[in-house]
Task: structure prediction
Amino acid sequence: MEAFNLGLFGLFGGILAEAAGIMALQTTAAGLRPVWLKDWFFWMWVVFRILCGGVLVLAYVLSGVSLTAFLAIHIGASSPLIIDRKSTRLNSSHLGI
Result:
């Protein structure tokens, strides 16, 4: 499969990972939803994490690794989750928690 197509599957995986986190708020009443949902800064980082998923897939493909579409989706989904996990650890260690 061509690198561009696999990159798109990686982006799709990133979108799935981000959507899963945001969908957790679907049962929250509109007035009780977090303010950051309307903040451009939050959405800028959502887009960045999704793009990282696509770039990670392209890095694999350009390194000569043979990927299927299904694997590209999984790799794309892992990127936002890894970034989120690392940022949570950095924030808690910075706060002394």
About this structure: The radius of gyration is 15 Å. The chain is about 70% helix and 0% strand.
